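User: Structure please.
Assistant: Input sequence and predicted structure:
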Amino acid sequence: MNFGKNINNKLTVIVPSFNEEKHIEECLKSVLWADEIVVVDSFSSDKTVEIAKKYTDRILQHEYINSAEQKNWTIPQAKYDWVFIIDCDERVTTQLKNEIRELLKKGPVKDGYSIKRNNYLMGKNIKYSGWGRDYVVRLFRKEVGRYQKKRVHSEIYLENVGELRSCLDHYTISSVTAWLTKINIYSSWKAEDKFEKGSRLSPVVQLFSRPIFRFFKDFVLRLGILDGWRGFLIASMASFSEIVMIAKLIQLNIGNDTTSLLERTSMKNDLKS
């Protein structure tokens, strides 16, 4: 489908945030070329909003439930027809900026565009381990782009999708503590998604097979070994995440989920965008 070469195509950038005072400034600097910047903040208690005000006057605040719901709530409030989603730990490169601007100037012929992310861990771009082939749909028409209704790993799926040549830089893990916090939260969400879909586990089989296969997949099949000790760490953490998720799903299956709503809220507020 060709939407025409409309030189008036304009772009709204949406930036979800929560307590991102260490990252949001560099993120916003990388998208200052956009026609509109919308920051949707989950009631940060640090200087995130104060910093954001230096770069945009469109700062919305909305209670965070999960990433998909936060973004889907914000997308319809964009002023322009084209939307670009960026998290605070990501940066638009000069090459990507130029490619997007040229695309909008010529007139996009797709509903959306996927972008490869360069994922960095402890100062190095990870080329394998499953992180090296990370494509996400982030540029799309406002009317058709919505995230799946999932608690974790929700993506935008469109039939009419193109692919950009330039990359988005992603500084994914700020510390080991943040990594473990993310595993704790995401494993809870994944377990709840599976439980609601009626998943019933064979605990012995799953606990022994799934984490082992995940490590083998990331470190061997996905060539994580070529990323050195970082690849080993990625595969190990992914395997550990599987163990934690399975344990939580077992807990849900036997009706012994003792996590209170207050504890869930506390965990949720530890998660960055």
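The beta strands are 11-17, 36-41, 58-61, 82-85, 90-92, 112-121, 124-125, 135-141, 161-173.
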